[in-house]
Design a protein that fits this description.
The model has no long low-confidence stretch (mean pLDDT about 95). Helix 2 packs across helix 3, helix 4 crosses helix 6 and helix 5 runs antiparallel to helix 8. A three-stranded antiparallel β-sheet has the order 1-3-2. It starts with 11 loop residues before the first helix and ends in a 6-residue tail after the last helix. The longest helix has 25 residues. Helices cover about 70% and strands about 5% of the residues. It is built from ten helices and three strands. By secondary structure, the protein is mostly helical. The chain has two domains: about 60 residues, Winged helix-like DNA-binding domain superfamily/Winged helix DNA-binding domain (Arc Repressor Mutant, subunit A); about 140 residues, Four Helix Bundle (Hemerythrin (Met), subunit A). Strand 2 and strand 3 form a beta hairpin. The protein is globular, with a radius of gyration of 18 Å.
Amino acid sequence: MDAPKRLAKETVREYAYRALKHNIVTLALEPGSMLSENKIAAELGISRTPVREALIELAKMQLVEVFPQKGSRIAKVNYALVEEARFMRLVMEKAIAEMMCDVATEEQLRGLDELLRLQEFYLERSSPLKLLELDNEFHRRMFEICRMNQIHYLMSGIMTHFDRVRSLSLQVIKEIKIVGDHRAILSAIRAKDKAAAARSVTEHLSRYRIDEDLIRAKYPQYFE
């Protein structure tokens, strides 16, 4: 289990929640695996109480299953929840891409260009977890440019279901198209072509369906 650095002004409970969510997305905590509150607390250098509270919150999001008197385990991937998350993200991000055609400045777009060059760097070096992090950063900045930060934050819970599949996809699929998809989105926004921007977002967020059979074949134990 990875123990990320605690952020400034972050409460112990917030840290426990963020650390557990990070490990669920990256699959360091594998779907279906049992959890030990004592072990997690020791690895994070905190007490059991914030760990237990974080697990309760994650259970509400259906990412963790809590069994009274028995313990907790990481929920297996539920494709119904993955599709629900993708639906929300698709509706919101198509609107965000179209909005960016009206509000994004050239300076902001150049910042996204720089981010894509960094994505290419990690793509060439086969760093899937870093690539996933930069993928999320690209989409977060889209919301930021449109001043929709709170909506992005509210989406982050259910997006974890989608992110787990994306993490698996980056480890299984040989021809990764994330950077190319992002370039298509950015090109359409720069051209102020709202229809093309929406199409590019739709294609980008639909790739997991193409990858599903390969992912299930390699990791059948991860799915309900």
